[in-house]
Design goal:
mainly beta; Immunoglobulin-like; 4 domains; 11-stranded mixed β-sheet; 7-stranded mixed β-sheet; 37 strands; 50% strand; globular; Ig-like_dom_sf
């Protein structure tokens, strides 16, 4: 659903410096809604989307480069649900549910003028919460009917939201699987004819979607809906290696592809492919230019490759796909490790960048134990964790951020992580330390 301005449902209030428009609309639970500014966003405009009567900031565009940021909102209700278009300023809320109903305010600051537009969104239908589940890549997923299947019932399991595909059915007590019509489900489907339970084996991101159970009982029809999604994909590479992030599903010719980098609080567009024109855009000048000369976007597969990696490329990557049937997304967490082989002696770990008034943290091991930090200009070491192996061995230089491990032993070998809060951006650097005897 797209909400735009029309004289039938808008109230326009004008003043010298502020223009305000109020729109309203209703959306079924599980659908998406796009809130459209219906005005041309100019370079230099500051665009903010606010939610609720407390005006909680959930998305914004600022700066000459139109860098966009989305936020998770109160109680993380907008986590992984917002899509902000940096060109038009439109905001899309995906998988909308009852908790997303309410007032949305768009503010565009242009010089001394401020344009405001308010949208009131209501959500109808049954909440998604009971049917929403997250699974891990490779899991065996069971979808239950929660109702007793009777002898004359016709049972169908459907895949997709708007354009639905029949996966399996029970008709006249005969079970039929249509896993050959969609390559994603080939040899992965199992249907229990007594309970109606559907099993999907080796679940992956390409299977993440709506699943609908339809039971026809005489003249009556019973529906149950599920939304299954995959926890984020994770990968670890060594510094200097390349890695490729691949879409989980087949990309159609007219689909618009966006690759973003950064945590959920600040995601920066680094590559885009416009479906209709085939135009490829890579933005290696953003995110402190850490991607300069390193981005490769495949126009056929739409996969993104980052070459000659550094620890600065550690972080969260997200793929947004916009198609005629809706939206989908994938999240990737990548860790780039710097490997060092050192003799037993003092070890100095250095940040890759000069620190200023930054907050930094040094962490160790798979448990990410905090062993040193600089906050408010004060350096502190925590040498009692884990299991006191760093007792009286740590020194932290609060000017450079260097961490020194004195008289290091085998027990100090392992992964070290440096996390830096630089203004509004978070950098993470990783090193894998191996110690060998002299």
């Amino acid at each position: 659903m797209i909400m735009t301005c029309s004289s039938a449902n808008s109230i326009i209030i004008c003043s010298f410096l502020c223009f305000c428009v109020l729109l309203s609309g209703s959306v079924p639970a599980g659908d998406y809604v796009t809130l459209n500014p219906e005005t041309v966003i100019q370079r230099g405009d500051k665009v903010q989307w606010l939610f609720g009567y407390k005006d909680t900031l959930i998305a914004e565009i600022k700066g000459e480069n139109r860098e966009k940021t989305t936020h998770e909102g109160p109680d993380e209700i907008f986590k992984n649900r917002l899509k902000l278009d940096e060109t038009t300023g439109s905001l899309t809320i995906k998988l909308i549910d009852s908790e997303h109903a309410g007032l949305y305010t768009l503010k565009i600051r242009r010089g001394r003028k401020t344009l405001k537009k308010k949208f009131h969104v209501s959500v109808r239908g049954e909440s998604l919460q009971s049917g929403m589940r997250s699974v891990m890549e490779g899991d065996r997923v069971f979808l239950f009917s929660d109702t007793e299947i009777q002898t004359d019932d016709e049972v169908q399991w459907l895949f997709g939201d708007k354009e639905q595909t029949v996966l399996t059915e029970i008709k006249n007590t005969e079970v039929t699987k249509y896993d050959g019509t969609d390559w994603r489900f080939r040899d992965r489907l199992e249907l229990d004819e007594e309970t109606g339970r559907l099993t999907i084996t080796k679940f992956s991101a390409e299977h993440a979607e709506f699943y609908t159970l339809k039971i026809t009982r005489g003249r009556d029809k019973i529906y149950k809906r599920f939304y299954i999604f995959v926890e984020e994909w994770k990968k670890t590479v060594m510094e200097g290696e390349s890695f490729t992030l691949k879409p989980a599903r087949e990309i159609k010719k007219d689909d618009v592809i966006e690759w973003l980098y950064g945590d959920r609080e600040q995601q920066t567009l680094i590559a885009k492919l416009k479906g209709k024109t085939g135009e490829i855009l890579t933005r290696d000048d953003v995110a402190d230019e850490r991607f300069r000369g390193r981005l490769e976007l495949d126009e056929t597969t739409r996969s993104l490759t980052i070459t000659n990696t550094r620890t600065a490329h550690t972080g969260v990557y997200k793929l947004d796909i916009t198609s005629s049937s809706g939206f989908s997304e994938q999240t990737f967490t990548v860790t780039v490790m710097e490997e060092k082989i050192l003799k037993e002696d003092s070890v100095t770990l250095k940040p890759d960048t000069k620190i200023q008034n930054d907050e930094i943290q040094w962490r160790f091991g798979k448990e990410n134990s905090l062993i040193a930090e600089i906050k408010g200009g004060t350096g502190v070491t925590h040498d009692d964790v884990p299991d006191e192996r760093f007792r009286d061995r740590l020194e932290l230089n609060k000017k450079t951020g260097d961490l020194i491990i004195k008289n290091s032993k085998y027990e100090h070998a392992g992964p070290y992580k440096l996390k830096m809060q630089i203004l509004s951006f978070v950098n993470e650097f990783n090193e894998l330390i191996h110690l060998v005897p002299e």
